């Protein structure tokens, strides 16, 4: 049976993300119990109508699903292991950032204690929760997802990827890898522009437009990779090697470290040295697997 708007929810962990989730639940009409290991982070939530629990054990006495948003995988076990008996027969939604194998381990742990487990990867910063553009990716228990989908959609656009509890976090971390590479590239470029007196803010506007335009190439790269044919390049690895050689020189001339560009340069150099210079840049994925 699907939940009602008044389904109570417990939130364990009141970092910036936990606070945003709990505040959104309250605004959505859900009785919300909150707990945090460090006291004092629940003040505004209690003022808004949340029930503050003194301990995690007290928090999970409340009815409804338990949303866990802690620091890391070890924190989840540290808090939930002593509560396994109390959580038996309950539904746990873990939104802590955990690696895929850690998510699968938690799912197995939960199953062993009679806990219905759903894992989620949050594709948003705290200020985006409850707003357009935020999404949370889920995998694990379909029953938990279906029963609480209305609540999950209140927090962010929700998408379910199947019963493999590690699949959502695989998507999550793969997307985050792309994000960090993008931000790293921006910082590298901003450092180069600083050497000629251009502010990071001024460079950011131009960089955002450029990155948006280049992102349109991703579907084409996906098709090339899935097809496995790298023999008809638009721009070959030889071309990209020359480009990265020039970028590296310009970087050093600007007095900037090459830490961000060196890994991709090394991947391209290796492929060219192995005789793949005439092939498509997308072949680089084969060096990673």
UniProtKB/TrEMBL annotation:
UniProt protein name: 3-hydroxyisobutyrate dehydrogenase-like beta-hydroxyacid dehydrogenase
The keyword Oxidoreductase belongs to this UniProt entry's keyword annotation: yes
Residues annotated as domain NADPH-dependent reductive aminase-like C-terminal: 164-288
Keywords from the UniProt entry: Oxidoreductase
Keyword Oxidoreductase assigned: yes
Organism: Nocardia tenerifensis
Transmembrane region(s): none
Gene Ontology MF terms in the entry: NADP binding; oxidoreductase activity
Domain 6-phosphogluconate dehydrogenase NADP-binding: 9-157
Domain of life: Bacteria
Family matches, as InterPro entries: 6PGD_dom2 (IPR013328), 6PGDH_NADP-bd (IPR006115), HIBADH-related (IPR015815), HIBADH-related_NP60_sf (IPR051265), NAD(P)-bd_dom_sf (IPR036291), RedAm-like_C (IPR048666)
Similarity comment: Belongs to the HIBADH-related family.
Coiled-coil segments on the chain, per record: none
């Amino acid at each position: 049976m699907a939940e009602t708007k008044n389904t109570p929810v417990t939130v364990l962990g009141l970092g910036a993300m936990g606070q945003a989730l709990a505040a959104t639940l309250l605004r959505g009409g859900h009785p919300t119990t909150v707990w945090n290991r460090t006291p004092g982070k629940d003040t505004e939530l209690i003022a808004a109508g949340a029930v503050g629990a003194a301990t995690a054990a007290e928090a999970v006495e409340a009815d409804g699903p338990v949303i866990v948003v802690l620091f890391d995988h070890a924190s989840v076990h540290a808090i939930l292991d002593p509560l396994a008996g109390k959580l038996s027969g309950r539904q746990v939604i873990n939104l802590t950032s955990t690696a895929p194998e850690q998510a699968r381990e938690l799912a197995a742990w939960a199953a062993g204690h009679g806990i219905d487990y759903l894992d989620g990867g949050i594709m948003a910063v705290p200020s985006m929760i409850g707003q357009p553009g935020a999404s949370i990716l889920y995998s694990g228990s379909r029953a938990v997802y279906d029963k609480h989908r209305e609540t999950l959609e209140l927090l962010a656009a929700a998408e379910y990827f199947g019963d493999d509890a590690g699949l959502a976090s695989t998507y999550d971390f793969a997307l985050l890898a792309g994000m960090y590479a993008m931000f790293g590239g921006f910082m590298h470029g901003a450092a180069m522009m600083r050497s000629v007196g251009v502010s990071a803010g001024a460079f950011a506007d131009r960089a955002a437009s450029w990155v948006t335009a280049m992102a349109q190439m991703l579907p084409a790269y996906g098709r090339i990779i899935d097809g496995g044919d790298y023999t008809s390049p638009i721009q070959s690895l030889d071309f990209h090697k020359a480009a990265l050689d020039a970028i590296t020189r310009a970087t050093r001339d600007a007095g900037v470290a090459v830490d961000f560009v060196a890994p991709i340069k090394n991947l391209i150099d290796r492929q060219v040295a192995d005789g793949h210079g005439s092939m498509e840049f997308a072949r680089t994925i084969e060096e990673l697997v």
